[in-house]
Prior knowledge:
The complex is a heterotrimer. By secondary structure, chain B is mainly α. Chain B has helices at about 1-10, 10-45, 50-65, 65-75, 80-105, 110-120, 125-155, 165-175, 180-210. Chain B has a single domain (about 1-210), classed as MetI-like fold (Orthogonal Bundle). Chain B is elongated and about 70 Å long.
Amino acid sequence: xxxxxxxxxxxxxxxxxxxxxxxxxxxxxxxxxxxxxxxxxxxxxxxxxxxxxxxxxxxxxxxxxxxxxxxxxxxxxxxxxxxxxxxxxxxxxxxxxxxxxxxxxxxxxxxxxxxxxxxxxxxxxxxxxxxxxxxxxxxxxxxxxxxxxxxxxxxxxxxxxxxxxxxxxxxxxxxxxxxxxxxxxxxxxxxxxxxxxxxxxxxxxxxxxxxxxxxxxxxxxxx
Amino acid sequence: xxxxxxxxxxxxxxxxxxxxxxxxxxxxxxxxxxxxxxxxxxxxxxxxxxxxxxxxxxxxxxxxxxxxxxxxxxxxxxxxxxxxxxxxxxxxxxxxxxxxxxxxxxxxxxxxxxxxxxxxxxxxxxxxxxxxxxxxxxxxxxxxxxxxxxxxxxxxxxxxxxxxxxxxxxxxxxxxxxxxxxxxxxxxxxxxxxxxxxxxxxxxxxxxxxxxxxxxxxxx
Amino acid sequence: xxxxxxxxxxxxxxxxxxxxxxxxxxxxxxxxxxxxxxxxxxxxxxxxxxxxxxxxxxxxxxxxxxxxxxxxxxxxxxxxxxxxxxxxxxxxxxxxxxxxxxxxxxxxxxxxxxxxxxxxxxxxxxxxxxxxxxxxxxxxxxxxxxxxxxxxxxxxxxxxxxxxxxxxxxxxxxxxxxxxxxxxxxxxxxxxxxxxxxxxxxxxxxxxxxxxxxxxxxxxxxxxxxxxxxxxxxxxxxxxxxxxxx
Lengths: 223, 220, 246
């Protein structure tokens, strides 16, 4: 056991640098995901028939395919066609796109659970459709979406580990690397698991704090 | 269209990969179901110690990324074959999610019904077997279908420990038919999408068949 | 008539709150006992103590002369002998009407499916619901659900039935159908304890009335006498609220 702790401390600098990359990658793709998820979600509820079908097809297709595949398509597929992205950029785009379609579904659900009377009331005051969405619907939807959205955020945080498959030096890749250098794979992965666990618990704590801060009495997602 | 010819000639290979993916899927879902149900029942009906242990286990399995657990199991000090390692690791992760599904379903059963069963003189195991489980199945089949489709896609993670599933197949084909990467991956995407659709529509139909008045129906 | 149930010095506390204080009464075979009192008086707790849904703290409950308030007793077999009808019905939502009523004979009594079905059909007929045999609880009105839950209790062939405010959750226009089923049962000689706010039922159907206030039995006796000339001031006050309403 002592040797495990010695080893863990020995590889800690590498592991923490990986954790830092994980954190940065997560922030990028989660931000991308929420931004595009919101747009896609609004488009699925309020846009014209034509755009609705395009968005729906896009969202449904991406929801039906693995994240790893999307990553390989963007990194190897586009690379093969001459557009070779840096691994970290490819991962940011692929994971951001992946999480945005799930966020889109949560936004859609949240928007649809807002009572129709809210839109009617906004319109009857002379607000345009987009202004009504911007000032009345979205502020409510953003609050309603938080529980499911934060689950997706935590899920995506863990899922950034797939970026190791295209060579991004994040936490899992660092575990792999230190494991290979010292031929102590299992122990390296245990260290990675511990760091992930601590970070995931921290992210979950932050999300639940935000959730509590922004709740409005009486405003809840319809069950 | 060179690429079409290649894809058609590789169809048997893809069929094999699909079969492997489905085996991994079935295996991990069963592991996740058994352990997930056990965790859920322990968290609800267990005594303080059992409850604590079950909750702790669930939280850790939930917090560790699938890939990390996959490598952990793969590099265990004793030899496991790749497929079995993938099934166990992904199954463990799935159990954390499945237990939440079952727990939510059980807790939404009206407590009055459990009391009514108790008042009729039914023992605890019988109440679980005849009242809790049948209602839990109906209440959890909707969210469980989501878990199914997310695990179907996550069988692709078994790629990283060298299970020859769909992604690994695609990699081989790309390697010896140079220059078709995007097209092959697009085809693989369509394959996964189709599998997901077939799978979920099967569970929708099952839900429809098990439905009785009084249970909420998903709109779709 | 023989005594079927004898309750002696029953007490029950929730934390520091004494909900039942030294409650004693007895019930003869075939009698209908109405328990009345304001909300929170302890009357529902009394009922739930009898079949140990809330185990009493002390006292004796003698069912056909055997004390069932001891740890050695198999409470499940006792519960099967005491039917219980809930305020909010609590039918099993995943089972249809026939399956709900068959459930007791099949899963508690261990009878064959055929026997269970015969018993269930007879009890469903008795409460006048035979045309709804294939429906599910969610498709029935509250009154209909309560009639089925009475049939479910009857199908166990209990020695007595405990009714816990069986009409309190119902709209006024639906209470009649449930009360008439209960009246018919009383006339057929079913032994029952009915916790109720229906003073009309208590006065005209019950053989005996108990008035509970703050966990104490204030007064018990024949309904006609108690309703006409209550001996205690608290009983008189309680009853006067209802007289005005009727």
